[in-house]
Amino acid sequence: MALDKVVKDIIDSARREADALIERAEEEKKAILGESEEQISKMRKAQEKDLEDTLKRLRRQEISSAELEAKKIVLNKKKEILDRTFEEALSELSAMPSNDKARVYRKSIDAAKAAFPRPKVFCPRGDSGLLNGIQGLAAVNEMDIEAGLILENEDGSVRLDYRFKTILEGIWEQELKEVSEILFG
Asked: What are the residues whose beta carbons fall under 8 Å from the beta carbon of 117, sequence distance 6 or more?
C-alpha cells in the first residue's frame, strides 16, 4: 500500500505540475495574444493615419492642380481678350477716315523730317493721295503694306517704320500692364 500512496503522490504531484504548466501556458498565451492585439491595434492606427495623411495630401494636390488649371484658363481668356482688343484697335486705326489718316500721316512725316529732311515715303496702295500737298518729300511710293507709313532717308540707309501695327505694338508693350488693369481690374 505504501507503493500505492507513492504512486498516488507522484500522480498528484505530476497533475499539480501539469496544471501549473497549463495555467502558466494560458497566462503566456493571454499575454502573447494581448501583445499581438496591441501591436495589431497600433499597426492599424498607423495605417489609418498614413491613409488619412495620404488622402489629405492627395486632396491638397488635387485642389492645387485645379487652382492651377483655373488660373491657366483665366490667363488664356485674358490673353484672348487682350489679343482681340489689340486686333480691334488695329482694325479701327486701319479703317479711320481718310482726313484723320492724312493728319496722322502728316504728323509722322513731320516727326521723320527731324531725322532726315527729305524722306522717301512708302504708303499702302491707294493712300498716296492723302499725302498731296506735303512739301519736302523725296518720293512717294505705294506698296503692299499695312496701314501707316515707312519713311526712309534719301540714300536708303535709315528706315523709320510708322505703320499703325508697329506703332500699336510698341505702345502695347509699354502699356500692357495698364491695359490689363483697365480690362481686368
From this structure: 136
62-105: per-residue pLDDT in tens? 988 888 888 888 878 888 888 888 899 889 988 899 999 999 99
Please tell me the pTM assigned to this model: 0.61
DSSP class of residue 131 equals G
DSSP class of residue 119 equals -
Q: C-alpha cell of 20?
A: 501549473
CATH number of 96-184: 3.30.2320.30
Integer-rounded Cα Rg, in Å, for the chain is 47
| Amino acid found at 94 | S
Q: Cα(84)–Cα(76) distance, rounded to whole angstroms?
A: 12
Q: What are phi and psi of 64, to 5 degrees?
A: -60, -45
Report domain extents, the chain.
96-184
